[in-house]
UniProtKB/TrEMBL annotation:
Alphabetical list of Gene3D superfamilies matching this protein: SP0830-like domains
SUPFAM superfamilies referenced in this protein's UniProt entry, alphabetically: SP0830-like (SSF160379)
Organism placement in taxonomy: Bacteria, Bacillati, Actinomycetota, Actinomycetes, Kitasatosporales
The species this protein was found in: Streptomyces litmocidini
Protein name in the entry: DUF1697 domain-containing protein
InterPro entries the UniProt entry points to: DUF1697
Length: 186
């Protein structure tokens, strides 16, 4: 592959058991069936890394995967695809002291489009301290000292009125770093 790039696919809202089940072995098979190589998954929660020279771009790759999942499983799953350079740039631009925090305390919420500040202007950040967030390019950095499961700010930034029209999926910082590492492996 001459112009091959490595990407991470971030699936939103799947389960490894239950209603919206997408087993990782089958996800790997789907990605290989789409012509991608070096396919690997991380954890059982919808994280896959693959290499391709398709030239379809992130949106095109995501749509193709969404279509393949719908055809195979009978339901549609939102898929955000980001290249390894983008993932690394997100980590490099993190405004929080990531190296000093536990992985469960820091999250990257990836969006399908720009994280415009206007969307978040009505959120009274002072009311949620010590929790906080910062915006980046198609990403929101979310600091939750007690973890995302206990985060009131996490709920506020994910309200439908805030994210209307965007696909959003969150990954804890450990997963962010692991996906970067996986996109760098040869």
């Amino acid at each position: 592959m001459t112009n091959a790039k490595t990407y991470a696919a971030l699936l939103r809202g799947i389960n490894v058991s239950g209603r919206r089940k997408v087993p990782m072995a089958e996800l790997r098979n789907l990605l290989e069936g789409l012509g991608h190589t070096d396919v690997r998954t991380y954890l059982q929660s919808g994280n896959a890394v693959f290499t391709t020279d398709s030239g379809a771009g992130e949106d095109g790759l995501g749509t193709a995967l969404e279509d393949a999942i719908e055809e195979r499983f009978g339901f549609r799953v939102d898929c955000l695809v980001r290249d390894g350079d983008y993932l690394a740039a997100v980590a490099d631009a993190c405004p929080f002291p990531a190296a000093e925090l536990q992985g469960k305390q820091l999250h990257a919420v990836y969006y399908s489009g720009p994280a415009d500040p206007e969307r978040f202007a009505a959120i009274d950040r002072q009311a949620f301290l010590p929790e906080d967030f910062a915006l980046g390019d198609r990403v929101l950095y979310l600091y939750t000292p007690e973890g995302l499961g206990n985060s009131r700010l996490g709920e506020a930034v994910s309200r439908p009125s805030v994210v209307k029209g965007l696909v959003a999926t969150a990954r804890n910082w450990n997963t962010v770093l692991k996906l970067i590492e996986m996109t760098r492996e040869d």
